[in-house]
Design a protein that fits this description.
CATH architecture of the largest domain: Distorted Sandwich
Radius of gyration: 27 Å
Strand order of the largest sheet: 4-5-6-7-16-11-10-9-14
Bound molecules: 2-acetamido-2-deoxy-beta-D-glucopyranose
Helix content: 25-40%
Distance between the termini: 39 Å
Structural class: alpha+beta
Number of strands: 31
Largest sheet: 9 strands, antiparallel
CATH class of the largest domain: Mainly Beta
Length: 810
């Protein structure tokens, strides 16, 4: 009976697929609450963007923290700007926010309030609205703003109240979100209605500056909007620090030479319009190459200025991305539907580009502009792309390889086209390893050169850059000791922040595992496989068995060059640390871990969890240690080192406990409100994590294995368009009563059996990449008997437990 019922669901979801309107389910305002004290709001960007776009056009507010420009509150708007970061931490004033526009009315040309603080305005309550590809808000003075966009261009429309006796648009050269203008140019051609801009600003994560260009066109074709330019001029504060601003119609260009520190100069263009229907339509393009290229991008991508065409094309692109994870929207719990589609949507919204630059033979890296940061994204964003979006992922992987071509190292973090800080290991390594193990056989078709990919991995694993704080790793220490020693001066002269020794050891171990995996799948020989396999066990060398905490013994610690350990309390830097410690990047870090505690990072060896279980004293001690980790408050839902922890029980043969924990974590930390993301979305890291939790999956990066558990939906379909296959996952016996933080005893939460294409799997704890991408039919049977689930563990098969390297896995 049940089986037939499920077949019926498949038929239904296929029918739904044909007429999807999944974009209407996306709530772009999740994660837009302000973070307290500059802390971890979601920093999500709710403006207009297409997937993987360079342009993210939306409003900016005056109050920090505002990493993505936007905040859901009543703070004043300073402009509508063209590019933004999504979900990142970094500078609390934000990233990008370049060349904002601002609409003004009812002023005289020479005395309009063009300056930043003079012009800022609140939004009328309740007027912010957005859907994928579109954003709108209305100011308290009645001016409505709308935005939509393509990859490198977009349209902005201001609609003025009928009572306005004059209508203006300000183009601001100097105010990026960080107020970090270091020089640039604004040029106006009143006869063509074109304003071009070039500016140099500071990156949002790191110490470098970057130069970016934009092109605004203000003479819309009459078929799209009947508007004419009445007066146009340029403005400038003088003296530069003054709030006194002079507007002049005589000038066609203003240039500000490069200065080494940001200036307070205010400058830009002011244009007044006569519009028959009270609206002004603007087209823009952006470029890292030149102002002319910015104009060419706009002309190429939006030749006809057709708003509806641009918006519906953007919507279709999102519809395509969203439909790669299909559920029966009418049948599933509405909260889960909203959470899932709002997360799938954020997930792949990274900003990478490569191909257009080749055309103009400018540094390829210029287009690798916003990959902050692999430490954040390797765990969930890339594995999600691996399942559903191989073509887009291949572009990103190529951008990583390009990074190696230019610098000699796989990039860890790119912010605004320049390298940012390396947070831990060089975590582009597990991303390239992941691509190799999943797509080596299709690399040619995807345009990824695997020899280069492998060389990038090896160079990053072996060579030490002059300053490993910005690129690569401290391989001098790593290859000499097998761990990163504390209090050691590198005789080679290579420098970098010497902190985070224990967690860097753990991440370097995973990085070397990624090389081992690539060596294996790319047939690089047994010697390489063994070398990197052995080095990937380096994390065991920072294990101090004598350290105890909460009744458990054995914790990861810093270690001196002579082999003795440097003690820090295992709870140091955890959310419940009784004394202040720092686990930041800087020299104040006095625990040896990055953004985490020893309590937490002692669990970190995704490729070798059986060793962790052993080091901790075996499965039952491991289970109570994970329980204690949660009950004592060492877990931080909003930060990456905590991501995998709800799934840790799988490695101790207790998937039933993972099922309970994942439900608990999701409902206690995520939601559909503006505060619905527990930490920075981090370029989609948090959203991709939620997607995996809801689907009952967790990726083991740089392997073809995914942990599997109890989904939050009764069925789903994953589509991989490279393979042209849709994989159906059905939960037989799905129990809606489990859709809660603490499923009651007797509800059908526990995975009992997994059948793949009708064949019973030997394990109920993991499936392979192949299972999830090759069009199979996966049936997960759940039941409610907790006692039986505990006894069943991962199942009877000899490989029922998820794999570990040193026990013969991978
Ligand atoms: C999608 O749904 C929204 C909201 O229900 C609706 O306004 C819109 O017209 C729909 N679009 C399509 C293409 O069906
Ligand atoms: C903005 O909202 C805050 C918090 O809700 C409130 O205290 C404040 O009065 C509001 N300010 C304005 C100018 O509306
Ligand atoms: C335009 O409107 C403003 C504000 O209502 C008013 O002060 C100004 O006198 C008006 N100008 C003209 C030319 O009507
Ligand atoms: C404005 O653009 C037109 C058309 O390209 C060109 O002929 C004219 O010289 C430009 N004017 C200025 C001031 O650059
Ligand atoms: C900032 O930009 C200038 C001009 O492009 C360049 O000379 C300088 O090296 C840059 N500074 C940094 C720190 O990148
Ligand atoms: C008039 O303005 C509205 C926005 O308020 C816009 O949607 C429409 O396309 C405009 N129509 C014309 C003919 O300019
Ligand atoms: C603009 O040019 C006109 C005519 O040459 C001149 O009278 C006026 O003073 C100039 N204005 C400014 C602000 O430079
Ligand atoms: C604005 O446009 C209207 C209608 O085309 C025209 O009558 C009027 O003279 C224009 N005003 C200005 C200031 O250009
Ligand atoms: C370590 O290297 C040896 C060969 O020297 C090999 O047999 C063993 O499998 C390697 N261990 C790992 C974990 O890769
Ligand atoms: C969906 O799940 C949420 C969370 O448990 C619950 O509050 C809500 O009532 C459920 N909705 C329906 C329609 O059952
Ligand atoms: C769950 O129900 C079973 C069977 O009724 C009972 O034996 C068990 O003690 C219950 N467990 C909990 C945690 O309430
Ligand atoms: C649950 O499973 C246990 C162990 O297999 C069994 O003894 C018990 O009868 C089951 N309880 C129910 C309510 O089926």
């Amino acid at each position: 009976m049940m089986r037939l019922f499920c077949v019926y669901i498949f038929a239904l979801s296929t029918a739904v697929h044909a007429t999807t309107n999944l974009t209407s389910l996306v709530n772009l305002f999740i994660g837009t609450a302000s973070g307290a004290n500059g802390g971890s709001g979601g920093n999500a960007f709710p403006g207009a963007a297409i997937p993987h776009a360079m342009v993210k056009v939306g409003i900016d507010v005056d109050e920090a923290p505002r990493q993505a420009g936007y905040i859901s509150d009543n703070s004043s708007v300073t402009g509508i700007s063209l590019m933004h970061d999504e979900g990142t931490g970094g500078n609390t004033d934000g990233g990008y926010g370049i060349f904002p526009l601002f609409p003004l009315m009812d002023c005289a040309f020479s005395s309009c309030p063009v300056g930043l603080s003079a012009r800022e305005t609140q939004r009328a309550a309740g007027t912010d609205a957005a859907s994928p590809g579109y954003f709108t808000t209305t100011f308290v003075n009645g001016i409505k703003t709308e935005t939509t966009s393509t990859r490198r261009a977009g349209l902005i429309r201001f609609s003025y109240p009928a009572t306005a006796n004059s209508t203006y648009v300000v183009v601001d050269l100097t105010h990026d979100l960080q107020r970090s203008f270091e020089g640039g140019t604004v040029s106006l051609n009143a006869s063509t209605g074109r304003v071009t801009l070039t500016g140099t600003f500071l990156q949002s994560y790191g110490v470098e500056n970057y130069t970016v260009h934009a092109c605004y066109d203000f003479l819309a074709p009459p078929s799209q909007n009947e508007q004419s330019l009445v007066t146009a001029g340029l403005f400038e504060s003088s003296p530069s620090s003054s709030t006194t601003i002079t507007v002049s119609t005589n000038l066609t260009s203003l240039s500000f030479p490069y200065t080494t520190s940001p200036t307070t100069t205010q400058a830009g263009a002011l244009l007044s319009f006569n519009s028959t229907n009270g609206s002004v339509l603007t087209r823009f393009g952006v470029s890292f190459i030149s102002p002319d290229q910015a104009c060419a991008n706009a002309e190429e991508e939006i030749p006809g200025w057709n708003w509806n065409a641009v918006q519906s094309a953007s919507r279709s692109k999102w519809e395509d991305v969203l439909s790669r994870v299909m559920i029966d929207v009418a049948k599933e719990n509405a909260t889960i539907v909203e959470l899932l589609y709002s997360s799938v949507c954020f997930g792949p919204s990274e900003s990478y580009r490569r191909k257009p630059v080749l055309v103009f033979s400018v540094s390829i890296l210029r287009c690798f502009f916003s990959g902050q940061c692999s430490w954040d994204t390797f765990r969930t964003v890339h594995p999600l792309l691996s399942l559903t979006s191989p073509r887009e992922w291949a572009d990103i992987v190529n951008a990583y390889i390009d990074g190696w071509r230019f610098t000699g190292y796989i990039p860890e973090c790119r912010a605004n086209t320049k390298h940012g800080y390396v947070q831990g290991g060089s975590d582009g390594m597990p991303i390239l390893g992941d691509f190799a193990v999943k797509y080596a056989d299709f690399a040619k078709e995807l345009g990824v050169p695997t020899d280069d990919l492998y060389q990038a991995l090896v160079d990053t694993a072996e060579n030490t850059p002059g300053d490993w704080y910005f690129d690569g790793r401290q391989n001098t220490a790593w290859t000499m000791f097998g761990y990163i020693p504390t209090d050691w001066t590198d005789p080679s002269g290579a420098t970098g922040l010497p902190t985070r020794e224990a967690s860097r050891t753990e991440e370097y171990s995973l990085g070397d595992f990624a090389v081992r995996q690539a060596a294996k799948v790319l047939n690089k020989g047994q010697a390489a496989i063994d070398l990197y396999g052995n080095r990937s066990m380096g994390f065991t060398l920072v294990w101090d068995p004598t350290v105890t905490s909460d009744g458990f013994s054995g914790f990861a610690q810093r270690r001196f060059p002579n082999g003795s350990f440097a003690y820090s309390p295992p709870d140091a830097c955890s959310p419940v640390d009784p004394t202040p410690h720092s686990c930041a990047r800087g020299t104040d870090n006095n625990v040896g871990f990055y953004e985490s505690s020893s309590w937490e990072m002692s669990f970190f060896a995704p490729h070798s969890m059986s060793t962790v279980v052993d080091l901790m004293g075996g499965p039952s001690t491991f289970v109570s240690r994970v329980d204690t980790y949660f009950s004592k408050g060492y877990y931080t839902a909003g930060n990456e080192p905590s991501f995998a922890m709800p799934w840790a029980y799988h490695y101790a043969n207790r998937p039933d406990l993972s099922a309970l924990r994942v439900r608990n974590i999701v409902f206690n930390n995520f939601g559909t409100g503006i505060g619905g993301i527990p930490g920075n979305d981090d370029s989609g890291a948090m959203a991709a994590l939620l997607t995996f939790h809801l689907l009952g999956l967790y990726p083991v990066v740089s392997t073809r294995q995914f942990l599997i558990g109890s989904p939050f939906v009764s069925s789903y379909t994953l589509t991989n368009d490279l393979f042209g296959k849709s994989t159906h996952v059905t939960v037989e016996g799905f129990d809606p009563a489990t859709i809660t933080a603490t499923p009651a005893n007797g509800t059908a939460l526990f995975v009992k059996e997994i059948k793949i294409n009708g064949i019973r799997s030997d394990t109920i704890c993991w499936v392979t990449f192949d299972d999830l991408t090759s069009g199979k039919d996966i049936v997960i049977t759940v039941d409610s008997n907790a006692t039986a689930a505990a006894a069943r563990g991962c199942g009877e098969g000899p490989n029922a437990l998820p794999s570990s390297l040193e026990t013969g896995g991978f």
